[in-house]
Write a structure and sequence with these properties.
Elements lengths: L30 E3 L4 E3 L1 H7 L5 E3 H90 L1 H16 L7 H15 L13 H22 L8 H4 L6 E7 L9 E5 L2 E5 L4 E6 L4 E6 L13 E4 L5 E5 L4 E5 L5 E5 L5 E7 L5 E6 L11 E9 L9 E8 L13 E6 L5 E8 L2 E7 L5 E5 L13 E3 L5 E5 L4 E5 L5 E7 L5 E6 L5 E6 L3 E6 L4 H4 L4
Antiparallel strand pairs: 1-2, 1-3, 4-27, 5-6, 6-7, 7-8, 9-10, 10-11, 11-12, 13-14, 14-15, 15-16, 17-18, 18-19, 19-20, 21-22, 22-23, 23-24, 25-26, 26-27
Helix pairs in contact: 3-5, 4-5
Length: 533
């Protein structure tokens, strides 16, 4: 088909070549192929662009002008829309700013009102408390005035008792103490310690409590069921034999007796020293010389029958052995829990205290005490064999966990195990269990002004238990049944950290604070005069 313009029908040809490659017709290009976006000559349109949408160049120019105008119009509309949005945002910001300023002012006003109300309420509470406190103090003064004769009589009885004029077994003393106990208990709703001038009465009340405790023990002494009950009530009088300082010291050390006058103890985090009772160093060992233990802290140790030491590194959860020449070998690695205490039992077995947590007592720590039979090849000193004898985790009747963070242990002559178990970082309890895992009793101190903090325990030849109380500056003696017997040390400004008895129980070594070690005469040996002091 032909048209008036070039006699060509637009889009009527059928050709597969979409491009114009003719160079000879460049000056004659009067058409435009929309598909190929090329300027075309008449020949190329007929030959190679059949079926394509094409127009003349004049028509294409007109279309481009229309497209440009449409684009500019849309651009203007977008610009106007943007300006309108900016105007709306400015108006919104202005409105919100005014609202925020108003809200801030309201908050300030409300805060001032609340402060005033709190101050008024505090003044009223203080006034009511002062009135109530004065009334209670007046009541207490009246009560003390009424009981003045009885208090004086009680103090007189205390003086007689302490001087030995009255015996703790006198019936009239027991009867009178019971009568005064009922009267003193009626005073307990009042806070004696907060009132001036009543310190003497408070001291008398505390002395009365101590007297009642002594009387109660004298009445129950006959129920002790053992072969040593006749000897347990023998008097123990500490007599200082020597004392010495060792430096640099640790806050808490470990004592391990070798003989009557020699003991192993800490000198630094990595060192152990063998000293005599005069403080003279006989031998010193440094576990840091072993490359595997470089930077590790020697946390606890115990002496074997051949005087070799077994110690643990808590961070590595490992057990090591060191002979008297300083040779160190590893016995076991990757223990289940962190080892916290070691003890060689009289039958040669090894007792290990474990804790599931390293330091954090407040969280759910689980404690365990294990007795192991350790077989070591004495020729090679390697490849040890461990045989579990007994695990102590729960009471024998499965009524509950025995330990939280067991720390130190001692074996009594009646085979009971005495375990110091930490409850928090500043409190502990002494737990005594038999070899079947039955909890026999717990002990948490006497006459406490601060939490009971035991860090060491020992047992003598008569099944008496010696335990320290660091925060209250005391050393306690208990019977094997758990009854408090007496204090053998109670001096302020002294902090007993560790204690140990010599093999014959003739001497008691006590470590105080960071630098002081004291050696006391504990018992006379039977060879001295045939009796126990």
């Amino acid at each position: 088909m032909m048209t008036s313009e070039g006699n060509i029908s637009r889009g009527s040809f059928q050709s597969a070549n979409p491009e114009c490659q003719e160079r000879s017709c460049e000056n004659d290009r009067g058409f435009f192929c929309k598909k190929c976006t090329l300027g075309l000559c008449r020949k190329c349109i007929q030959a190679k662009h059949e079926g394509h949408d094409w127009v003349t160049l004049k028509e294409r120019a007109t279309e481009c002008q229309h497209e440009a105008k449409s684009f500019m119009k849309k651009l203007e509309e977008l610009e106007e829309k943007k300006k309108a949005e900016i105007r709306n945002l400015k108006a919104m910001v202005k409105k919100n700013g005014e609202s925020f300023s108003k809200t801030t002012q309201e908050i300030d006003n409300r805060e001032n009102i609340m402060k005033y109300e709190v101050q008024e309420y505090s003044r009223e509470l203080k006034r009511q408390f002062e009135i109530h406190h004065q009334d209670r103090e007046n009541e207490l003064q009246d009560l003390i005035s009424q009981k003045e004769d009885e208090i004086s009589k009680l103090e007189l009885y205390m003086e007689f008792f302490e001087s030995g004029i009255l015996s703790s077994t006198d019936a009239h003393v027991v009867e009178y103490t019971h009568d005064i106990q009922l009267k003193i208990e009626s005073y307990t709703p009042f806070n004696f310690g907060s009132l001036k001038g009543q310190s003497q009465f408070v001291a008398g009340r505390n002395n009365l409590s101590e007297l009642r405790d002594l009387l109660g023990r004298s009445q129950t002494a006959g129920v002790i069921r053992d072969d040593y009950s006749s000897q347990q009530n023998q008097e123990i009088n500490l007599q200082e034999v020597s004392h010495f300082k060792f430096s640099p010291g640790l806050e808490s050390t470990i004592l391990c007796m070798v003989s009557e006058n020699m003991a192993f103890h800490h000198t630094e985090h990595r060192k152990v020293q063998l000293s005599n009772d005069k403080g003279h160093s006989i031998q010193e060992f440094d576990i840091g010389r072993n490359p595997e233990l470089s930077g590790q802290q020697l946390y606890t140790f115990t002496k074997l029958a051949d005087d070799d030491l077994i110690f643990c590194c808590r961070n590595q959860r490992s057990l090591w052995r060191m002979n008297r020449s300083g040779w160190i070998t590893c016995l076991r690695r990757d223990l289940l829990y962190y080892p916290t205490g070691l003890l060689t039992l009289k039958d040669g077995n090894l007792l290990i205290c474990y804790a599931s947590k390293r330091f954090n007592f407040m969280k759910s720590s689980t404690g365990m005490v294990s007795i192991l039979n350790v077989l070591i090849d004495e020729e090679s000193r390697s490849s040890p064999t461990f045989k579990l004898v007994k695990n102590f985790t729960h009471n024998a009747d499965a009524s509950g966990k025995l330990f939280k963070w067991p720390y130190r242990a001692a074996e009594n002559k009646n085979t009971d195990l005495c375990i110091v178990d930490f409850l928090t970082t500043e409190s502990s309890v002494l737990k005594v269990v038999d070899r079947q895992g039955n909890l026999r009793f717990c002990y948490s101190g006497q006459f406490l002004s601060k939490p009971f903090l035991a860090t060491s325990v020992a047992c003598d030849n008569h099944c008496r238990i010696i335990v320290n109380d660091n925060l209250n500056h005391r050393i306690h003696v208990l019977s094997q049944e758990g009854s408090f017997m007496k204090f053998i040390w109670k001096e302020l400004d002294s902090y007993p950290w560790a204690l140990a008895l010599s093999p014959s129980c003739s001497f008691l070594w006590v470590h105080f604070g960071k630098k002081t070690m004291k050696v006391f005469k504990y018992e006379k040996s039977e060879s001295d005069d045939g009796n126990i002091q």
